[in-house]
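User: For a benchmark we're assembling, each entry needs the component sequences followed by a predicted structure for the full assembly. Here are entry 17's components. Please fill in the structure.
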Amino acid sequence: MELLIKNGLVYDPINGVNEEKMDIAVKDGKIVEKVNERRAKKIDASGMIVMPGGIDIHSHIAGGKVNSGRLLRPEDHFKDFERKTAVTRSGVGYSIPSTFTTGYRYARMGWTTVMDPAMPPLEAKHTHEELSDTPIIDKASYPLLGDWWFVLEYLRDGKIEECARHVAWMIKATKGYAIKLVNPGGLEAWGFGRNVKNIDDPVPYFGITPREIIRGLCRVNKLLNLPHTIHVHTNNLGKPGNYVTALETMKCVEDLAEDGKPVIHITHCQFSAFKGDDWRTFESGAEEIANYVNAHSHVTMDMGQVIFTDTTTMTADGPFQYILYTLSGNKWVNHDVETETSAGIVPFHYRRRSYVHATQWSIGLELALLIKDPWKILMTTDHPNGGPFIAYPRIVAWLMSRKAREATLKKINSKARSRSLLPTIDRELSFYEIAIVTRAGQAKALGLKNKGHLGIGADADIAIYKFNSETMDPSKKYKAVRRAFKRAAYTIKSGQVVVKDGEVLKHVDGATMWLDVKTSEEAKITEEMKRRFKDYWTVEFENYPVSEDYLAISQPTTVKADV
Amino acid sequence: MMLVNLYPLKEFKLPVVAECINPDIFQGKKPKEIEGLEVWEGNKQKRLGELFKVEVAKEESVSEAAVITIHGDVSHVKRIGVGMKGGEIVVKGDAGMHLGEEMSGGKITVYGNVLGWAGSMMKGGTIEIHGNAGDYLGAPYRGSTEGMKGGKIIVHGNVGNEVGAHMKKGLIKIYGNAGQFVGFRMHGGTIYVQKDCGGRGGACMTDGTIVVGGFLESVLPTFTIEGLRKRVKIEEGEVVEAPFYLFLGDLTENGRGRLFVAKEPNPHLGYYEKFL
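Assistant: Structure for entry 17:
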């Protein structure tokens, strides 16, 4: 099928296109030089913004944890439901929508690729079943390897190459996309009811420190030539004073960087940028982190922006979720994934009037605005931890308009307002920069070659928004920006128009991306390893790996490793 | 004043969802318009006029609000009076689930029994039930913590379990017996049970008052005895004159909720007196 998008104002940062009036031609799901103008279906995008389809580097949309969250919160589904239409299926859920609704809602905003960031290897099959059921968007998942017994042992013994081969096997076995570390070492300690205090606090029974785990896996990541860097949820997340830990985490891999390329991704950084000794002296550490990131090039990060709403927090960081449970007194789930990792789920309401919540809101935006290079800080809410992803249009408006920020500042806790750095920040992001933080930057950080841009050969994932950036000023008309991003005029997925004026026109399936890492020799699966599986896992080793036919639409990328 | 009479045209076998039976919605509408309001019967969308005979009368009065009277059994009809802000609904028969959910004003009177979740998430107004009420009276939907925030519920018969769960403000008066978990996780407000009460009353309560006038099998071990009281005030103009034990709890939640239990029908609680 051929498609021609005419006269749109194109923003394509990877190819350096900034608000140029041009046509985009699509053929067989790819962007091409030109199509037969008479035969092609034409879309008149004059006076509209054309961008690559949105990408979300970190959004919990599938897996055991998300599903436990759905079970925990019937009230979340009661309030928000969607009726079936001729093309879409029904669904429920506000902060943890069901799989179909997740796909439709992303597509309605013009997002076409989403990464599920925390897959316990044991629950890989469940995760992939849910991902296969999530329509329209392309997706991938990161296996949790920061507390994986075999990794800890290989790193403790200094066997970095064996570790790399093992990780390559794990990524293939779980059909994963990147190495995820959540509170490295802390989750293993949580198995014993403990946590690690800083990145040099040894993990019980393993005698290895978080620093060694982070550095080890960072080197493994380089040996394997993985497209994304290690994806790190820092130690001490959600505790006052933890910006020091975040800085130490970034510093500890500084020497591993080469040619200014990023080697670490600090995810939902807002939750790792707290200053102060306790909740009373709590304040923003965004400035310190921004100063560091501005001076170094080995880090990328995402915001983890907080939205004032009732949401559900869920992370693999069991000890952090326990703290959140004791703070809020809400119901919770402590989900222990056998030997592998932990997880916790706590419903949480971020309130404007709360000093801490309002400061958290401010920290996310401060990070995004104080870090000068938009390629380094990407837009997320850490869905659903900071808020549901449907709030992205509001974040876009806050980033683009000082007026929008001031309107919200007026309504928040007065102490938080007086301490916030936001009133001193004049910066307003342009649409070009928004295209970076929501698309191009995300694609670059993830190493997705065919996504996040509109060059020849790229996947034809395109979003068109009804906002005339030539005549309208987003800084003043921030409500129009919000409306435009809430309901994309068109979303095109693999060359097919799936959304028009915010309504889903077509149910198409998205692919699941994964890495087929080729090492020079296969990882050794020793008898000892199999024995351990027999002793400690509820799943037999033979049944453990996810086979490719398990994925509805499998899209492997072959990576050649150095080991 | 607008008087609307609704007569069920048949005995309902399928659940009917009729949020439109609401004085605010009926207000100022012509009979034809009222008949045309949408309802669901099972999985079919219908008009109100297909299920009910609608009669509208006008009466000169100072009040503008509509009064809806339902003549007959509507125990299969859910969500009557949901979110109503004023006016009155009278049900001469039984009513279904979610009666008066999230209502913030007006009055609902039922001369029969009601099923679960009557007055759920209520914010104001009055519900009076002359028969029995089901489970979750004045309690939020499952899993939700959004309890009753105001208003008054009076039940002349018995009620089921979890009355007033998560309640924050308001009053529930029960002149019959109540089931288990009265005032589960309540944070405020008052619940009065004139007769007997099932077990685990006040579990996880942090504040508010529960008054049990009849037999209570046992008080949770996480409550401590505070003293004896000669009388308990339920609301302005209603005081129960009888000796009551006063317990405070629930200590598992660091709660300071007050649980009054009448002394006379509960001789088995007498051993608490030695702690006074």
